[in-house]
Amino acid sequence: MEEKLSDPQTTAMIVCNPHNPAGIIWDKETLTKIGKLANKHDVLIISDEIHGDITMPGYDYVPFASLDAEVTQNSISLASPSKTFNLAILHAATLFIPNAKLRQKVEHAISVDGINSPGIMAMDASIAAYTQGHEWLTELRQYIQKNREYVEDFAKKNIPDIKVLPAQATYLAWIDCSKLTDRSDEFNQFLRDKTGLYLAEGTKYRGNGNQFLRMNLATPKSNVEDAMQRLVKGITEYKA
Predict the structure, then answer these.
(1) How far apart are CA 74 and CA 128, in angstroms?
(2) For 163, how many CA atoms within 13 A lie in the half-sphere containing its CB?
(3) What is the SS3 assignment for 189?
(4) How much is the pTM?
(5) Which helix or strand (DSSP H or E) is residue 77 part of?
(6) C-alpha pair distances (Å), 167 with each of 79, 120, 219, 235
(7) Is the N or C terminus of the chain more exposed, i.e. has fewer CB atoms within 10 Å?
(8) Which residues, at least 6 apart from 201, have a Cβ–Cβ distance to it below 8 Å?
(9) Neighbours of 96 (CB within 10 A)
(10) What gap in Å lies between CA 185 and CA 99, rounded to an integer?
(11) Could you give the 3-state DSSP secondary structure of residue 2?
């Protein structure tokens, strides 16, 4: 990481916190280490925290803006109710910028682009979500966790060729299919064609994503059960 940060071409680093697609909640020590390295090499930290509300029961994420001022002064944190409360169509988002000079630059930039004036529905919906959505969100987190546990258990018992990675956050399951293929894009298309199961190929995430698939768990359990049956069918045909 430091080698990449020290590259003169690197001016900003996007930190996905919690991480999508792996569902990792970065701890304070890790985030602080990243922040100090960014300071050392004059790289701006942009912390994408859009999945911050969707932590699994028993877990809480660490907002980058909650760290020591030494690192937060060189950061922009992004949050939105769009994922958690399904409000993406309203284009509602918030930027947290502790550094006053940096905040002025950002305010100027978004005003030039004409995106500094959210609609009244976006503001009202955001306020409603964050002030009245706590009970609903608690139930959502519990429901997603049950779906996650079902997928993990089903895979262990019925699909030894894959492994569902444990996750602390997000409504997504990251599925290791390296025993079957190193071309998850082709494998994903095969599943669509043969079973009608629509997952997301990990290749779009680069790195070793070519060995992974991503599944959406924010859906009724009946859909998740149906998806796993289709996955079994698809893998059986894929191996034939």
Answers:
(1) 31
(2) 8
(3) helix
(4) 0.91
(5) strand 75-79
(6) 20, 35, 17, 23
(7) C
(8) 184, 185, 187, 188, 189, 209, 213, 214
(9) 17
(10) 42
(11) helix
The pLDDT tens digits of the residues spanning 108-155 come to 998 887 777 788 999 999 999 999 999 999 999 999 999 999 999 999
Taking the alpha carbons at both ends of the chain, their separation in whole angstroms is 42
Structure confidence by residue, pLDDT tens digits, 61-80: 999 999 999 999 999 999 99
Cβ atoms of 33 and 45 within 8 Å: the answer is no
213, β-bridge pairs: 175, 201
Smallest CA-to-CA distance from 214 within 178, 184, 179, 234 is with: 184
Cα–Cα distance measured from residue 205 to residue 175, given in angstroms and rounded to the nearest whole number: 13
The better pLDDT of the pair 240, 68 is held by 68
Neighbours of 239 (CB within 10 A): 8
C-alpha closest to that of 171 among 85, 68, 45: 85
Burial category of 160 from C-beta neighbours within 10 Å (exposed 0-12, middle 13-18, buried 19 and up):
exposed
Which structure tokens are listed for 74? Answer: 């060189």
Q: List the beta bridge partners of residue 46.
A: 14, 76
Residue 90 CA to residue 133 CA, distance in Å, equals: 17
Q: Which long-range contacts (CB under 8 A, 24 or more apart) does 42-45 make?
A: 42/11, 43/5, 43/10, 43/11, 43/12, 43/13, 44/11, 44/12, 44/13, 44/74, 44/75, 44/76, 44/102, 45/12, 45/13, 45/15, 45/71, 45/74, 45/75, 45/76
34, amino acid identity: I
